[in-house]
Amino acid sequence: MTKSQYVRANYQVNATPQFHVLSEHQCENIYYGALEALERTGAEVHSRTALEIFRQGGCRVDGNRVRFPTRLVERAVSSTPSRVVISDRHGHRSMFLEGSNVYYGPGPTNTYTLDPFTGERRRPKKSDTVRAGIVCDALPNIAYAMDNGTPMDVTPTLADVHAFQALLENTVKPIIHWGFGIEQYQDIVEMAAAVAGGLAELQRNPFIVLYSESSPPLRHSEEAIDKAIFAAKTDIPVIYTPCTFAGGVAPATMAGSLVISVADFLVGLVAGQLVREGASFIMGGLISTMDMSSSILSYGATELSLLSAGLTDVARHMKIPMFSTGGCSDSKVIDVQTGIEAAFSILIAGLSGASIVHDCNYMEYGATGSLELMVMDDEIIGMVKRILEGIEVDDEHLAVDVIDAVGPGGHFLGEMHTMAHFRDFWAPTLINRLRYDGWKAEGSKTMGQRIREKTQNIINTHKPEKLPDEVLRQIQTVVDRAEAREAAKKISK
Amino acid sequence: MSNYFEDLAHSVIAGQQDRVKQLTQQALDAGTDPVEIINQGLISGMNVVGARFKVGQMFVPEVLMSARAMNGGMELVKPLLVGQELPSAGKVVLGTVKGDLHDIGKNLVGMMLESAGFTVVNLGVDAGPQKFLQAIKEHKPGVIGMSALLTTTMLSMKDTIEVLKEEGLRNKVKVIVGGAPISQDFADEIGADGFAPDAASATDLCKKLLA
């Protein structure tokens, strides 16, 4: 999206409307709460590599328990870049994660996918990840690609590698991607480097962001923290994101949940900054409530929006880019509930000014990925972006001269001024504003039908830019080698 | 005496552990049969909790508090049951599978099972086939429950089932599976006896399998 113009010297212009749910003092208190939790309670770390890094870095290590002196955490926060720029597959710098710029896109690793042709809810296949790449590539308001479901028709321990190949070959947009462990991350970085023209090029203009989830409260698996360390060592930006749900793995209070979220992010951050001072980190991320009847982590809860906006405020206070959540739903099909939950969360995330807003494809409390939802969200994001553009106020836009020329009782349809500006109105592509007869003539279609048609149309007709054959061969070589490695492991077992 | 039981059941429903302990002790001091205290007071209160939870009148944290209150009473009654069989709906061994540290869902299942009168042996996280095998030999449960959050670790469920077959124990225990990536299809595929999508239905499933 266009750069936010939230602050302009001498003349305060609210060119981008924003809201904050926390004051500076409240942000500070939450940050202090996290520092206290890390110094007093500490975190459980299940990686020898990480434990050694923490020990050498000056943390208090007792078995798996690591306690973090405040000065160490503060140093890590201050050495983290306040901005991260992500490029597209061509190396063109396209996502400026700084200030209050907002970029929307989907989320990863859903267990099921909603087939946009059959409507069936089923296990994702690699061909579904190809579709995800194509749809992300085609939608103007989706800034990056993520996989929309873990492919289950490939070697299970290489689902991440296969998903990355499918995305890499089907979109020029930046890719945010997860991995099971370090070996797979090495494969993924190697594939990306083949596209960028070498690792140094990839580091200079990264078009991938790595992604790692810890397990709150205050528990970090070997894979999770080692992946953050790997990203820092390899000098590739990483999102470290605890999956925090209030009342379950965090206190039932909003502020307490924010403390857990910030503290768990900081554990990954400290590890990364100890390995490479100045490594690019983006603060995740997923924060909502546990539904106390069904025990799901709710993706449609209003608290998801409220908490995410709060966490974004804290991230801004810490001067670290934020990975937020929106465009998601607990509904099982595309219906009215989906519309309400998706629109609400996209708007709030936009107004909060989070750098990246992910999960614009998550249905059924995250269990199911839906390309149709992503297509619907693309429309909502368009609406929200228009709101974020605000109202311009200068002589040209005040148009007092035009008002005078038209005079009382006239109309503005024939004015050059109208010609110059009416295209600033947001124009829908899925929302229907036809008069009744026009809508009937077009088949009396519901929003759901129009979304499905557009999704199918994109999959059938959109042709993403192909990678050169030589690069495709290099990518395939990495995948084949990974397959051989996993096969060898199976035999040795 | 029926008032004791009513009070006791109410205190279980309200999740008041101290009150439950106090009433249980009073009942014992008055010479009430321990088994009666369990069945007519503690369990009968918990049955109401289970029913209310199902219809959305009570919520997970309240069920947990009630279960704790009930267990507070149980602790006092248990030592007096010498020679008598402790009323139990059955024994269940639970664990999060190898390579997986995610255990909130599994712990919720354990809590629900206990509140329904099951005896639960919780193996914690990162439990591989050998750990389950050992637990089966030691505790002789009616059911083992495996939990996983990750698509990679869920594959270890099959390994455990294979090991049980090799050891000739597969027919001696029911195997149930659950967790975010698990489905009925997956359970069928790996040869499990059952799958439950959430903690409350896991309890129903165990009851059904042990009936």
From TrEMBL, chain A:
InterPro entries: MttB-like_sf, MTTB_MeTrfase. It holds the Pfam family MTTB. Its EC number is 2.1.1.250. GO terms for molecular function: trimethylamine methyltransferase activity. Keywords: Methyltransferase, Transferase. GO terms for biological process: methanogenesis; methylation. Belongs to the trimethylamine methyltransferase family. This is Trimethylamine methyltransferase MttB. It comes from Acididesulfobacillus acetoxydans. The lineage of its organism: Bacteria, Bacillati, Bacillota, Clostridia, Eubacteriales.
UniProtKB/TrEMBL annotation, chain B:
GO terms for cellular component: cytosol. Gene3D superfamilies: Cobalamin-binding domain (3.40.50.280), Methionine synthase domain (1.10.1240.10). Keywords: Cobalt, Metal-binding, Methyltransferase, Transferase. Residues 1-89 form the B12-binding N-terminal domain. Residues 89-211 form the B12-binding domain. GO terms for molecular function: cobalamin binding; cobalt ion binding; methionine synthase activity. Pfam families: B12-binding (PF02310), B12-binding_2 (PF02607). Coiled coil: none annotated. One of its GO terms (biological process) is methanogenesis. InterPro entries: Cbl-bd_cap, Cobalamin-bd, Cobalamin-bd_sf, Corrinoid_p, Met_Synthase/Corrinoid, Meth_synthase_dom. Belongs to the methylamine corrinoid protein family. PANTHER family: METHIONINE SYNTHASE. This is Dimethylamine corrinoid protein.
